[in-house]
Structure formats: structure tokens, C-alpha cells
């Protein structure tokens, strides 16, 4: 049943991706709008550059030779399970941890030996880290006081950011008199007030409940677009990463597995880990038989038919690969689909009805269980596939991906 | 069943509190006794307070003890704050094990050993470098700082280790240098524990008889020393009066400090 | 230093790194040094000196003991270790008796403290949360008033014509006053009274932290309340029991004021013996030897206590 619950979580992403590709203009965020796609331009100079950055604690390698380029104005998400090293990487950017190896450049400046209090970065902490003995105003003014800003400027800036996060009415309160959501805004304001070149956010929405989190996601993106600061966000929540960021770096065991736009990460994962971590994936092991023009044919022991995948890029025959198909890309019916490839009969073992869609667990003859998502287009329940029915599952070659890692 | 058991528990609790407070209450009551006998009530009187206030020896000793306790408390809290930072924040350095042992040992060391050892050290030091010249309020203060610092460290250390470290990181991230972070963020947040440690060190010093007996000089008898020699000669209503003043001051002080700390604590959430 | 702070001023390569490390390193040294030096000078060194003097001989001089090392014919450095003080300690039955008696009295006082302190700590830990702090404050409050005066209060209560005897005679329980003052019983009462807070506080700390659902789980698995207490609560509160017992036992062994004021002439305790040796007989070397012997006796319980404290701190 765990798999079904996962599907519930991941469904939203699937829906979001469909919306993203179908509707023009894009919803809350248009990553390509004002920013363009500088990462596609080989001549663009990255704003943040990490070269072979490692961090070890004794024998434990928390961050393992990370190379990463982040461009000006991006909202970059570091996504990974807990303990993957994403927070350590963020703290290295902030100067709170000193990397064991490698170099960090921000805006062309080598950050080696630069303590946190001299870096052009500010951080929003997961716990918010609001100073309990200071009012909201004093908390926000703290950073400006450290650079001995003139009083008038402090007053003006504090008022401006309080306004930005709509917390003007709470300026005189102490942190313990605020709700979780209000604290989150104050923490954001405090980290924005110095107009850092880079804003680092450690699980910025982690402490909020689900509903507030969804609201705040969009607000955060709006604020980021207004102030134009480069954001680096650490999150374990893939939905959050997908919704907010221009690009995502998926981390696993101290390494960056893949960097790409949300759609790239979802549709074209580079590795089994990413495919499995983002959304739900049906994974089929197999050996490459032929590689012709733009189609790869893979022989999978679980499948009675050959598996064909439209693919650009070379995969040598004989290589062992994994074929990934997302559940919503699968088709299901009582009759055998036309065509020789990508078809297998199976028996429905489990159905999770989610309202807009249903998730079917179909067991193939080999015992392999495939997940199929079907949109519930009609009210009527007749003709609907039910438990223990024999069905045929399949997919279009363009909707599968071959993973070599 | 449950009711019976908790009834027994609360009976023990009541007995315990009676055991703790009855002697003090009796002490206070009999300080207002007319008669010289502290065990037979013969009428209300405040004459013992008058006599106490006329007893120059006790007054001198009390003033000296207060001065020593004040300097001791300040010195002990200063050293204890540093020691607490060392214990909580400097997780590894050469000599940490010895340092931990040195900080905790005075907590359990019988005072009589500490007193003897400290005196012998002062004598040896005077012999070797000519300082300190004889025993005085200074030697008492030094000896008191040494042992009350251990208690103060425990108090400050426990607060410091509960403190959220990201607060310091956030301050540094916002541009404050480490020293400034300590004074602007860390110190205000652990301030209630500094106050508690100060009060503890103050009372420990005011309370100490054994160590002071070893390291005080002829002209520097502390209040406990004077009380002790008077008590050894027999019960005296003047001491009851003194005890009542003690209890009153301490109760008021503790209640005030408790209220202050409670307020800070709830503000510190 | 003239760049605008907070803006990415270029750090000049590795000299910047060195400066940052050096600044941190020096700062740390300045923090460690004062308490470390103070404790070494005024706590560690004194014990070395006590050890040294315990091997010296008493003389009528200032200071009243012989030096251990001396130049012989200006050539050889001679070390004279005088074991006489320790031999005397073993020889004279008085010291051994005082030793054993101290341990006995401290052990009984510790047991009585535990007996009274455990249910008190338990009752406070299970009281409504709002009241716990108040109840705890009441335990600690007497500790803040003068120790000497609190011991003194018991003289007036325990005397032959004291309040307790008067009361008991008045209600007709006894007709002859009980001789309590100047007996071991008065010492027990004084010790329990003075050190009870040291027992209750660590016990409370462990009992309060205990997860109450453990007892529910035990009950759910068929364990009766008394057995659940013996099998779950008691083992889990062991750290508190050990810490509290050590905090009572160790200072009790060396206690001087209580046996002096409340005990009788035959209440021999090692702290009192040391006091007499030092102040009455002015035999500093012998007093030092007594102190060293007392320390040897207390090393084991002190180590147990230290280990417990460190264990309690490590998980953080």
C-alpha cells in the first residue's frame, strides 16, 4: 500500500507537469520569462560556481566532489532525502562550514577563508533562528546594524521588507508572539534586508502545515522575482522543488545526481535514483538488442513483447539498461493494443481511487507489478476495470526513457 | 487503587516538606521569644533583634562576608561563563579531559580537603614568591571562587547547551563577528542562568564555614565563623534572629529572581 | 578592513584563511586559559602540595613541616619521603575507626536520603506540570539559606529539654526525655536534612524525563503496577539514584560541621579528626596524610559520579 500512497503524493506533480506543457502562459512561474535559460548558453558566466567541493566529518563524506553552476536570478533547488548532504552544501555556501576540498566562487570571488560575516550571502534557517530577545523590527535591523548603516536607511529598509512580507503590523512583537507562518515571513525579511547577492533557504517551508506551505510557495516565488536575488533552496519536498524552482539539483549520498529544469528531471531522469526519487516510475531491466536511427529496442525478461523506446543518443547493443515509464504515460485496456512492441497482459491486483484519477497495480505474468494511472473521465462506473480483471498495458515509445546508470 | 497510592505518595511529600521546613519555622518563631530559652515560649519580643544590631562583632563579620560573597560571585560567574563555553563549544582540544575533571571535582570534593589543600598552597606560595602575605579576605575570596565556580559552571553550561546554535550562526550570517555574536546574542539569551549562577555562588560563599576556617586570617573572620563559635558555646536567641533575617532575605531574593527568570524564560521561547 | 562589510570583498588568498584561523585560535586560547589556569593553580596544585606535605615531618617552624627535597653537600638533591604519618594512621586504631565509622554513617545517611527522597521526587515528577516548578523550588529553597543555621536549628529541637522531647512528653508518648542530641541519630538527621535536596534533584531529573507510555505499555502487556515499577521505573531511574547517592555520600564522608555540632564525643568521623589534627594539634603533615587517605577512599565514588555526569552529557 506504500506504493499507492506514494502515488497520491506524486500525482500532483504529474498533474502539474501536464499543465506546464499544455497551457501557455505558464502558471505561477515562467522560469524562462525574464531570466531566459542561461544554463543552456555555454558562454554565460555562472554566478555561483562550485568546483570539486567535498566535506567530510571523520570517515563520513557528507558532500562528495560537487561541481555546480548556478546563474544570476535563478531559483535553484537542492533536492534530496534527509542526510544526502544538501544542507551541508548550503552551509558551505554560507561559510558556516569549511569545505575539506574544492573551491567556491560567488560573483567571481573565491570564498576560501571568507567567514560567514563577510560573505555576500544571507541565509534563512530551517528553524528560522529568530533572536528571541529582540522584536521583529530589531531582528530585521540586526544585519544592517552590523554594517553600520545610517539610522535613516535602517528604518527605511526595515519598513520596506516588512511591507514586502506583509508583516508591518507586527514590527513591535517578539518572535514568541508570532505564529509559525509569521515567523517564516520575518525570517525571510531578515535575510533579504541586506540585499544579499545570494539568498540561501534551508527548508524554508518545512515547519509550516500543508495548506500554508502551498500558499507560501507561490509567494516566495513572487518575492524572488520582485527582488531579483539568486535563491538557493534546500528541500526534501519534491513538490515544493518542482513548483518553485527554475532548476533542480537532485542530491544523493553527497553527490549531485542530476541538474535540470523540473520538466527535464521528471521526464528525462538520468539515473534510476532520480527516476525513482521524483514521482513514481515503472522500471524494467533489460538488454539492448538493436539501436537503429532514433529507436532503441530492449529485451526485458518481464515483458512478453520487445520494448521500444524513442531515444536520441547512442546506447550500444548488449548494454544492460533500465527502461522507465511514468504511470500516467501508460495505457490500459481489455484488448491487446495494436503494434508488436510495448504490450503485456496482466491482472489487476490493486486499485487506488483518488477522485480525479485512479492508480491500478497490474501484475504481469512474470510477477512484475506495473503502476498505471488512468484519468476518471466519466461518472459512470460501468465498464470500469476492477480487481482481478485481465487487462493489457502498454505505452508509446516516445513516452519511455532508457536509463544507463 | 490509584487514589490510595497517590495518597501515600503525597503523604510522603508532605512529611518531606514538613521535615525541611519545620526547623526553619521554629527558628523564626523563637527569634521573637521573650525568654532566653529558645525552647519555651514566654511572650512576643523583638529584643533579640535589637541586641543583634548592637553586636559589633557579628555586624563586622556579616559585612565582610557580604563583600567576599559579592566579589566571589562576580569572579566565579566570569570564570564559569568561560568554562561553560569551553565545555559546550570547544568539543576537542588537548587537555579537555583534565579540564572537565577539574571543573567537576570541586562539586563533590569534601570541603575540609579543599580547605586544607588551598591553605597549604597559600602557605607554600607565600614561602616561595612572597604572595599572598598571610591569610586575609583575599585568600578566602580566592578559595571561594575556586569551589563556587564549579557550581556556577554547571548552571550556565546546562543553559548554554540547550541554546539553539543556529541563532549564533544566523547572527554571523548577518554580518556579526564572533565576539560581537557572543555579546549581542549568546550572552542575553543565557543571561537568566548567569543570574542564577551569581546568586548560587553568592550564597555558597556566604554559607561556607569549613574552607573559610582554613584560609581566613586573624582579622578576617567571616559570618559563619562567628556564628559557629557562638553556636558551639550554646544556643542563643540572637542567632535565631540572625537566621530569621537570613531566611527573609533569601526568600524574597529567590522569589524575585524566580519571577524575573520565569518572565525571561517565557520571552525566550 | 575598509571594504564594506557584508559585501563580497575579495579575501586575499590563503593569507586571509590564515588570519581567520589565527584569529579563531587565539580567541579560543583566551577563553580556555583563564578558567584552566585558575583551576590548575588553585585546585590541582594544592592537591599536589597536600600529597607532598603528607610525606613531611612536623616541626615547630613556619611553615610547620620539613622540606622533602634538600641539597646534600651542595651536590646531591636528596628526596626524603617520610612514611611515618601513614604508618601512624594505620597503627593508631583511632584513625581506622574514624574511617570505618565515616563510611558507615555516610552510607546509612545516603540510604535514608534515598528512602525519603525517592518517593518525594516521584511525587513531584508525577504532579501536574504547572505545580512541578513550585514544588521543586520548595525543595531547593532551604538549600539557599545558611547551612550552619539549619544545622543549628536541630540543636534546639533535639536537645534533652528541646522541642521534640517537650512535644512528646506533652502528648504523653514518653515520660523521660529521649537522648538524641550528641548521638549518631542526631548526625543521621542532620545529614539527611542537609543533603536531601542533592538526592531529590537528580532523581527528579531522571523521573521527569521518563516516558510514561512505557508504564502503559507494561500494563498493556500484563504487568501489575508494582512489578511495572520494579521492572521499568526503577531501572530507568538508576542514573538518578547513582548521581543522587554519590552527591550525598561523598560530602557526608568528609562532613565536619554536622558531627561536630550534633554528634557526641564518640561520634568519630574522619573530617572531624582532620580538623582536630590541624587546628588543635597543629600537625599539618598528619592532617595532610589524613586528607590523602580520605581522598583515596573517595576516589572510587568520585569516578563513578564523574562517569555518570559525562554519560549524561554525551548524547547531546
Q: Give the overall shape of chain B.
A: globular
Portion in beta strands of chain B = under 5%
Nearest-angstrom radius of gyration of chain B? 23 Å
Counting structural domains of chain C, the number is 2
Largest contact between chains: B-C, 88 and 89 residues
Q: What is the chain-wise order of helices and strands of chain B?
A: HHHHHHHHHHH
Number of helical segments of chain C?
13
Number of strands of chain B: 0
Question: What fold name stands as the CATH topology of chain B?
Answer: MetI-like fold
Oligomer state of the chains in this structure: heterotrimer
- State mean pLDDT of chain C (0 to 100 scale): 82
Total helical segments of chain B: 11
Report low-confidence residues of chain B grouped into runs of 5 or more.
none
The whole-number mean of residue pLDDT values of chain B reads 88
Q: Per the principal axes of the C-alpha atoms, what is the gross shape of chain C?
A: globular
Overview in brief:
The complex is a heterotrimer of chains A (about 400), B (about 270) and C (about 325). Chain A is an alpha+beta fold.
Notes on the protein architecture:
The complex is a heterotrimer of chains A (405), B (269) and C (316). In chain A, the strands form 4 sheets. In chain A, strands 6-7-8-3-9-10 form a 6-stranded mixed β-sheet, with helices on both faces. Chain A has a 5-stranded antiparallel β-sheet with strand order 13-12-11-14-20. Chain A has 405 residues and is an alpha+beta fold. In chain A, β11 and β12 (295-299) form a beta hairpin. Chain A contains 9 helices and 20 strands. With 269 residues, chain B is mainly α. Chain B has a single domain, classed as Orthogonal Bundle (MetI-like fold), CATH 1.10.3720. Chain B has helices spanning 2-31, 47-54, 56-89, 96-108, 111-129, 137-162, 165-173, 178-207, 210-215, 223-232, 237-267. The longest helix of chain B has 34 residues, at 56-89. Chain B is globular. The model of chain B has no long low-confidence stretch (mean pLDDT 88). With 316 residues, chain C is an all-alpha fold. Chain C has 2 domains: 15-79, no CATH class; 92-282, MetI-like fold (Orthogonal Bundle). A two-stranded antiparallel ribbon of chain C has the order 1-2. In chain C, α4 (129-144) packs antiparallel against α7 and α12 packs across α13. The longest helix of chain C is centred in the N-terminal third of the chain and has 41 residues, at 13-53. Chain C is globular, with a radius of gyration of 27 Å. Chains in contact: A-B, A-C, B-C. Chains B and C meet through α1, α3, α4, α5 and α6 of B and α1, α3, α4, α5 and α10 of C.
